[in-house]
Amino acid sequence: MPRRLLSLWLPHWHTTLWHKVHPHSDPGLPLALYGRDGQSRRIVAVNRAARAYGVQKGQFLAMARSLVPDLVTHPETPGRDARSLQKLAEWCRCFSPLVAADPPDGLWIDSTGCAHLFGGEASMLETVRARLAERGHEIRAALADTAGAAHALARHGDRELTCVPPGKTGQALADLPVAALRLAPDIRTGLGLMGITRVADLCAVPRASLARRFGMAPLSRLDQALGREKEALCFDRPVAALHARRVLLEPIGTAESLLHVVGVLCDDIASRLQKAGQGARRLDLLCQRVDDATQAIRVGTSEPVNDPVRLCRLLQERIETIDPGFGIEAMSLHVDHAEPRQPVTGTSGLTPSGLVSSDPASSGLAPASPAAPEAPRMPAMLVELAERLRNRPGLRGIYHLAATDSPFPEQAQKPADRPARRAAGPCASRFRSPGSDDTAGDGFPRLWPRPVRLFAAPCAIAPPVLAEDDSPRRFVWQGQMLRIRGANGPERLHGAWWQHPAQAGAIRDYWIVETEAGDRFWLFRRGDGQNAWSGDGAWFVHGLF
């Protein structure tokens, strides 16, 4: 996957931060922050009101005060600004795990493999701007193949949000000034005297003569922006609550040896968690190979856990996803998130080998003593089972089905993390059993019985033979003609016009039919069979009773 880098520039970072630190200040007053340049004081940041009076960055403070007599001036605070910028970079981990501060007023985000989570790169840029705007920050952002191109377009481009398609970096940089390449002031001045003002002009100059005149700095910056030379960026790693590391004497590669080291790391982490009265909620296992590549697996827990056996069991089920390559020389276990938990008072229901013990008292299948009832043990075992299934490779996880307001059966439920309480209104009636009452306590009739098996997508069938009362009498299912002994219907459902305008006027007529062989089907017709606006009249099998 090609690398994609996002550069964020906060042009009003210093003044915006000053107003945040001083919430009672009036943002409409002209404000300027100054710093010392030898014996003189120069402006380093101004707000919108000050710029409207002609105050600019780099001016002498005396000149700025001559332009605006009532200018509010304060000395810059680089230490506080740097710490705040670092905190903002950590907050930006909601967009990508790889972020870094770009002092004094910028951020780096490695968006490789993350843009699809926001609906694409353009949508990701809009999301970043909207969320930072909620925090009171104005930004200019650019997304490109290289860090140099993203940095240049964010600060010197003609748009606030720029997304350069892969492979189009040279065309996007051609019309930018040479100052966009992060060159030293003396080099920019020398290039300007030679008439080289744009990046395209710099590309046209012979490289040998350019190197003799200005050295390798302009060539290196140009190659980094165009992707000919790699540029190293130091991304900040999230600080783990706890971590343990083991450097191995010899590289290992078998599952047994990996699991042995995992057990040692889990014992170390668990003991430190128990002393701190905490439990792990998310763990990262990092395996460093001899070729300097890193293999990582992440597991999560359903509750704070500080039992080493339980932690080791979760990691053991993911060992098969690690590619040892030519060998692993170091392993580390990081607790990415921890929460308070009481010290361990008993053993887990899982043995170190991962198998259920034959002793019913230790396996959790029976109470350990007559004084310990069985009921309290079952929820804990179910929690551990759900925890293991959630971390199983290739498994989407465990979820509950919650009712929705959609009238169409295939959209009447949605996955939910928590089980929803059974509603007392009509929504709950969609899932009632066939033997339940036909009326609710409020007197309104409930919906008809639903099939035991509901097809996720209704199966299309040829239009059946209809009787005089418009009920189906014969239809073809899986190549066989089935005769209907009895039909109950129609049950008419209308589309969710309040949610989906395309369903306005949509109608479905459902029948419960029983064949001569005793099989029961749930059929429906799309439309009322008379008006074209209600549906095209196609027939479907939606479920089996």
UniProtKB/TrEMBL annotation:
Comp. bias (Low complexity) = 357-374
Any one GO molecular-function label of the UniProt entry: transferase activity
Any idea where the UmuC domain is? 29-151
Q: Which CDD domains match?
A: PolY_like
Q: Assembly and partners?
A: Monomer.
DUF6504 domain location is 468-541
Q: What is the source species?
A: Swaminathania salitolerans
In Swiss-Prot or TrEMBL terms, this protein is called DNA-directed DNA polymerase
Compositionally skewed regions (Polar residues) per UniProt: 344-356
Q: What does this protein do?
A: Poorly processive, error-prone DNA polymerase involved in untargeted mutagenesis. Copies undamaged DNA at stalled replication forks, which arise in vivo from mismatched or misaligned primer ends. These misaligned primers can be extended by PolIV. Exhibits no 3'-5' exonuclease (proofreading) activity. May be involved in translesional synthesis, in conjunction with the beta clamp from PolIII.
Residue ranges of the DNA polymerase Y-family little finger domain? 246-342
Q: Where is this region: Disordered?
A: 340-374, 408-442
Catalytic activity annotation: DNA(n) + a 2'-deoxyribonucleoside 5'-triphosphate = DNA(n+1) + diphosphate
- E.C. code: 2.7.7.7
Taxonomic path? Bacteria, Pseudomonadati, Pseudomonadota, Alphaproteobacteria, Acetobacterales
Q: Name one GO biological process term.
A: DNA repair
Q: Keywords on this record?
A: DNA damage, Transferase
